[in-house]
Structures are given as structure tokens and as C-alpha cells.
């Protein structure tokens, strides 16, 4: 029983010690709060109440900056909010900057496109404009994917010849020429060959050529 009493007495002293420390800290915080006089009394202005809610998942981390955002931050460029409409002098009306209404306005405005003198007179300018737009969309999508890969620290696979300071070797040039010829609509069937030209051969080249059958790996049981 003496041991039990000693333990209880020790725990009681510890609780009283923690209680006194808590009260002292609470009073110190109260004295640090701003005070004001109301009528003939001095009162303490309490902070606004806050309620901390438990989270099932950790707080999301801020998204890393893209290349353009880092450049704008370094140069002090502020992003200005663009207007949704723009006055078109030719159509004499307000045209949206994006969406199907903008495409309809462009079609209405460019109902006739002049063929430049340096192009073939039979060139379809509407098809050329559509191709340029598709290339621009693809370029923007590629840049968006690069930003995502850079933010997630994912290594982007290398495409084409390796970038070296020295000249490319004969095997590298042959590989690039073989892949380029097979990248046409006919998979290189109607492409002319140079005298004494040979197709590139080697490990991994067969899988890079479009239209070639891939070797199937044996099924593992």
C-alpha cells in the first residue's frame, strides 16, 4: 500500500505542476492581448474563434510553377485579366476571344483568303489554316505535358538522334533516315532509295520503324 500511495502522491504533484504551468501560460497570453476601455472598465479583446476540423488526407501542397510562371516572377511580369470580348472593326460587332462564336466570326470574316504569290495557286488556304491551327494546339499540349512531367520530376524519353557536340555517326544517320522514310503514309513503300543505301539494322531499331511487326514475348505461366 505504501508503494501505491507514493505513486498516487507523485502523480498528484505532477498534475498540480502541469496545472500551474498551464494557468501561467494562459495568463501570459491574456496579458499579451490588446486591451480597451469600455465605460469605466478595462477589457481584453479576444481573438476570433477558430474551429480546427480533422482531415482524412494531408493538406495539399502548392503546385510547382511552370517555366512561364518562373520567368514572369523573375522578370516581375504581372498577369493581366483579359477581356472576354473584342471589338472587330471589319465585322462591326463584339467578338468573343474564344469558343465556337469566335470560330464562326473568323469564318465569316475570312470568307475569302488570298493565295500568296510564293505558293501554288491551287493551294487550299482553308486547309492550310486548319493545319496550322492543329499544329499550334499540338504544340501547346506538348508544352503542357512537359510542364506536368517537370513538376513530377519525370524523365522525358529522348526522341531522335542524341544531342552531342560531335558529328553523328553513320549508324545514327542510317537509323534516322530509315525511320523518316517509314514515317510516310505508305510506310516508305514508294520512297526512292539512294545508290548503295542500306536499311539500318541493330538491336531496338526494328521496334522504332512504323508499320513493322513487333516480336511477341512468350506468355509466362
UniProtKB/TrEMBL annotation:
UniProt keyword list: Nucleus, Ribosome biogenesis
Its job: Involved in ribosomal large subunit assembly.
Stored InterPro entries: Ribosom_reg
Superkingdom as given in the UniProt entry: Eukaryota
Subcellular location: Nucleus
Family: Belongs to the RRS1 family.
One GO CC annotation: nucleus
GO biological process: ribosome biogenesis
Region (Disordered): 190-221
The protein's name: Ribosome biogenesis regulatory protein
Alphabetical list of Pfam families matching this protein: RRS1
Amino acid at each position: 500500500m505504501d508503494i501505491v500511495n507514493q505513486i498516487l502522491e507523485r502523480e498528484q504533484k505532477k498534475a498540480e505542476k502541469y496545472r500551474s504551468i498551464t494557468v501561467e501560460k494562459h495568463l501570459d497570453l491574456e496579458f499579451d492581448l490588446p486591451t480597451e476601455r469600455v465605460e469605466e472598465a478595462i477589457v481584453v479583446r479576444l481573438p476570433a474563434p477558430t474551429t480546427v476540423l480533422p482531415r482524412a488526407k494531408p493538406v495539399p501542397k502548392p503546385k510547382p510553377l511552370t517555366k512561364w510562371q518562373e520567368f514572369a516572377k523573375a522578370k516581375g511580369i504581372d498577369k493581366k485579366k483579359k477581356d472576354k470580348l473584342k471589338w472587330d472593326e471589319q465585322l462591326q460587332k463584339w467578338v468573343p476571344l474564344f469558343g465556337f462564336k469566335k470560330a464562326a466570326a473568323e469564318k465569316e470574316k475570312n470568307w475569302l483568303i488570298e493565295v500568296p504569290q510564293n505558293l501554288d495557286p491551287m493551294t487550299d488556304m482553308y486547309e492550310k489554316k486548319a493545319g496550322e491551327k492543329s499544329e499550334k494546339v499540338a504544340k501547346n499540349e506538348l508544352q503542357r505535358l512537359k510542364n506536368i512531367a517537370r513538376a513530377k520530376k519525370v524523365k522525358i524519353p529522348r526522341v531522335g538522334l542524341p544531342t552531342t557536340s560531335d558529328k553523328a555517326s553513320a549508324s545514327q544517320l542510317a537509323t534516322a533516315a530509315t525511320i523518316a522514310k517509314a514515317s510516310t503514309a505508305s510506310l516508305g513503300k514508294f520512297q526512292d532509295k539512294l545508290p548503295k543505301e542500306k536499311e539500318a539494322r541493330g538491336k531496338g531499331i526494328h521496334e522504332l520503324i512504323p508499320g513493322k511487326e513487333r516480336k511477341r514475348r512468350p506468355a509466362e505461366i
